[in-house]
Amino acid sequence: MLLTACAGPATGTSPAEIADAADCAVRETLAAFGTGGGEDLPAAPRAGRVPEGFAPVAAVECRMPEVRVLPAPEPPQILEPGASSLEDAAPAPVPVPPTGASVDVVRLEGDLGPLLAQLARRDVPARPDQACMAMFEVVPVLYLLDADDRAVRVRWPTDACGFLLEGAREGLAGLRETGRTTVSLS
User: Fold this and answer.
1) d(CA 86, CA 163)
2) Which of the four pLDDT bands, split at 50, 70 and 90, describes residue 35?
3) Whole-model pTM above 0.85?
């Protein structure tokens, strides 16, 4: 899927809504992954800048589950009644994997300073004649948590075309994963 953006968001960002907890099972998570769907899921709290007085101690990233591609096993051979050898055998039916979307909820801890510095950067405004490449970027769905596990969904600063500013993801690199759960969205 190709999307185009020819004007970035406004440079002023309002504060994020403070929620009781981080929630990855929301429409905005699927939209950020570019998968579509999720109309029956609730809306996420409003994303924005870290509100005054909110003291983050950890982060939660909503990630697409890791996909591991394994070679298909050889299907077992079933000897049909009346067949004289396995050469006449029909392959067994292959089970169909379950369908449905899911998301990994990953808790991250460590020095939040570099991440907060990245999130505090200002957007680069678009020029009236701005031309942008037609492409899709998966933007991390990220919540910051305070000591009471209240959460704010952050809005990442973007360039003139609406893409993450260079180096923005590097703020996540210094954090360590301290927990992971998978949540079904269906």
Assistant:
1) 57
2) confident
3) no
